[in-house]
Structure formats: structure tokens, C-alpha cells
Amino acid sequence: MRRHNGVLSCSIVVALAALGFSPVAWAASPPVPVHPDAEVNGVAAAFGLSVSEAKSQLAAQDEAHRLAASLPAGLRARSAGQWFDAATGKLVLAVTNAADADAARSAGAEPRLVSRTKAELDRTDAAVRALVGDGVPGVFGWGVDVRGNEVGISVDRSRKTAETESFLSRARNLGVRITETGSSPRQQDGTIHTGDPWWPGGESNCSVGFGATDSTGAKHFLTAGHCTNDRDQAAYGASGQQNRIGTSNVGGTRSVNAREGDMGVVAVTQPGWALSAAVNTWGEPAVTVTGSAEAMVGDRVCHSGNTSKWKCGEVKYTHKSVDYGGGLIIEDLTWTTACSLGGDSGGGWLLGTKAVGLHDGGPSQCVPDPSDGDMSLFQPVIEALNKWGLTLVTGGGNGDTTAPSAPGNARSTGTTSNSVSLAWDAATDNVGVTGYDVYNGSVLMTSVTGTSATVTGLSPDTSYAFTVKARDAAGNVSPASGVVSVKTQPGDGGGRTLSNGTDFAIRDYQQVFSPVTSTLTGQAAASLGISVTIRHTCAEDLGVTLLDPRGKAYPLKYSGGSACTAWNGVRTFSAPGSSSPAGGKWQLRVTDYGPGDTGVLDTWSLTL
User: Fold this and answer.
1) How many CB atoms lie within 10 A of CB 481?
2) Would residue 231 be called left, alpha or beta, if left means φ above 0 and alpha means ψ between -120 and 50 degrees?
3) DSSP percent split of the chain into helix, strand, coil, nearest 5
4) pLDDT in tens, 375-388
């Protein structure tokens, strides 16, 4: 059985005359402007604008995206985030120093000086994810808020317990923002309504998402993963198991409803079905999808849903996690203010004429000025397309057919026994690069939006040949970069010492976590050896703790002492480790307990 009865309505439609849809109503329209009337009217209604004001705002949003794609690679890498500011019509770039502020201003962006770097935000976010683990009562969302330059945690106060309070006490030590609400989002379900439903077997209906094809030209459509949980389930176009479309979740490998995301695929195999790039906009002029894109904080986006119809709103967060309860945690979703209701699950989200997402979940009712607990969430569509090697069905005369240039100067920036870190120079494109794919030979290893990546899960003492390809919003793919030949460090057979050489800033009253991942088997040694190199103005303010893969803490150094002495160089510690597994993620936690001092965790190593 499916976990939820999601009814996704009417995004990119699969047309079938036998289903009773009017061929005229769903035919792809002639070429449409970059911002079709349906989007303009939807944005105007959502934000209380006139039609001309909505058009001006969307034009400014386009310019912000073009500018973001053209920023110098170094400036983008150092930035702590970017967003579209609708009030000024500008791309805002979060920077941490005056030189980068000048560079942003010269490039045409509006600089915003902030105190936390992207690396610091990512580390805090990772620490929060580790604290959340498999879920905490009442905690339903966590992630980076680029506009606030902080990591936020969302809590439904009606579901709080003593466990929640304990979690929040530890989370506050990380310097995060905690927002309490009276509600929380849910993966939506609903009953049948008018639209384009499809039925998983004999269950209640879902609806069709974005049409897509595979490398052989075979037809499919994307939808929510919680609509496609069952393996090899017949998909029908009418109730009562009538009008067979094809098969959902073929082989059990084409559905995800877990930490990785909420996305699934239905194979369209029956004769008479045709994929269309037209979007049902519920009475507005038709919209034809011309490609895919990734949404930015501040963007005006719209979605088509069987229950809420055609609704628009603002992107508040990207890459933010949600906990729906019952052990269901999904990471890296996009959160918006747009209205959605039960029955919208799997529906298409659009940025102009570009597909950006598949509807995941939202509130039980729509409210004005929604808090975190009343927002609508979607799964980025590019991730689903890449995961299953699918190409979006597009149409219209505005499609971009120019591929980006190959990424330059691809190189290795570090290795461990099971990972390789890579970097490259940004590719160029006539519209804008939206992401990069990293391959080992012909195998896709990971996809990122920036100009660096870490490939994990590799074998120790093994040679690899990596290349990088750029892609744009229309799905055009660049030639491959030069080959990066690299060998991982020895693993179990070559020693039991692991290390992390990444610098972590140590700030007043904050914690930093530096992880290493072990692929070793069996138990850790009876005595663990730890070597730590720190540069800090007051060693007495620091507490240092080792955390094993099960979360057990080994205190190595306590804070204390009236005088401050500097810590410059290596210090060694030992800890009993025979009760810990050797394999898994080990972390070094450094806590600053005092004011007015600065420092850096330079490197550390662990001998198992």
C-alpha cells in the first residue's frame, strides 16, 4: 500500500482521448513569452500587485538569475548565499569582507555583509542534522536561512516533549535560530477531484506530473514518491482499474520517499498515450514547459494542483529538511509561501516556463502570511531527472539549445581512503549554468550547483578517473572536462589512521564538528590515539571531545583555568575505544566556552 494517497493534479499532462480530456484544451500552445499570462496573473494575485508590476518584478527576477550565473567563480565560492530581493529588484550576495562586497557591487549585485561563511553555515547545519538523527518530537524543519545568515530549526509547540526540550538545549549551543509554531506541514493526500488523475492499482487516485523520456525514447512521467511506493504496480487512467497507462516504480528502483527525496516514476507503456509539455493552469492561458531550472530564495514560483488549482508564492528556503513524523525525514526540499492543499501531491512547480519541482507536502489549510508550519514544500525536479537519467518533455519556440562550455582546470583538492574532493573552473553558457555532474568513467557519481564536490563511498587504495560536465536550465549538457586521475588513500590494509585537514574556525561560545569516516571493520582498538592541531589565543576556554559512530563521547580536554595561554601546535590524547565500532563517522567536537578570543582547528587524526 502507498503511505499517502497523494492527488497531484495537472502539471505536465499525459493526454489520452479515451480518458475524456479535450484534445484542444490540452494541446501545446504556440510559443509563449518567457513569463506567460498564467504566471503573471498568479504572481499578481499572490502578492497584491498589478499586472504591470508583476511583469516588472518577474523581469527583475530573470536578470537576477542571469547575473547569479555570470558571477566570478571565486566570488560565488566565497559567498555565504544569494537571493532575489523583490523590493529592490536586485540579486543580493551575502559576503564576509569588504573586498568581496566591492566585487559584488562591481558585478551588479547588492552586497550584504554577514558574519558567517557558507562553510560555517554548512557545518552548523550538519551538526543540527546529526542532533536530529532519526527525528525529535515536534521538530519538523531545519536548514540554512541565507537571508538571515543562520541555521534555523522549526518546532511545532503542540508536539513538544521532554525529549524536545533536551534537544533544543543542545541545539542552542550551536547558535541556531529556533522558531516555534502552532502547526507543521504534512505530506498531503486527498480524494478525487476534476483534473488528470491516475490510479495506482486499485488504490485512490494520484495525478500525473512532468512528462519525460529516457535514453531510448521510452515515455515516463514524474510524480511524488509517496504516490509510487509499491513496486511494479499497474497505473490506470480511470477508476475501477480502467484505461491502463503503464507501470509505476518498475523493478522497485524508481521511487524514493525518504531522506534522499520524494520522487517517483511511472512508465507509460500502453498505446494511445502521448506526453505533452502543456500545463493545466485552471482557466488561465496554457503554459508550455521549455526546460528545467533550480529555484533561488526570493523567487516567485507557481504550481498547478488538483485541489488548490493554480497558485503562486515566494521561495523562503532551499535545501531545508522536513520531518513528517513516523520516521519520515526528507532532506533538501524547497519551502514556499504558495497555498497548497491535500490532493496537490506531485504537482508541477514552475519558474516562468521552467520546471523546478514536484509537490511534496504542505499545510492542512491555506493561511495568509504563512509561518514555517504552514508552508508548501517541493522536491527539486532536476534531482529526479538526473537520478533516473530522464529528459524533460518540452515544447514552445523559446527553448535554449546551446550547451555550456566544458568546465576548465578540473583538479583534485584532497583524498581520504573512501573519498575524493574535486574542484574546477566555472563553465559559461548563453543563458546560465545551473549545475555540474561528476562522473567516474560513464557512471554519474554526484551532482552539485557549485564548482566543487566531494565524491564519497569509494574504495581504499583505488584509482579513479573523474570528469565534470556542466548543464543549463534547458537540460543542455557540456562536453566533459579534462580527466582527473586520482587514487584514494590506503584503508584497512594500509593503516588505521584517519585524518581531517580542513580548517574550522573556532568562535566564541560555539561548537565546531570535524568528521572523518572510517571504512574499517570490527571494533576500535583498546586505546584510541588522537592528535589535534589547534591555533587559539586561549587554550583554557576550549573543550575537546571525540564522538564515536554511535554517538558515545570521549572527553579529551576540559576548559578551565584563570589565565589564558595560547595553543599553537600539536597535542596528543588517548581514550579507551574497545567498546566502539571501528567503522562509521567519527567526529572531533571543539567547544569555545569564553569570550574575546579566536582560533582555528587546523587538523586532527585518529588512530583506531
Assistant:
1) 25
2) beta
3) 15, 40, 40
4) 999 999 999 999 99
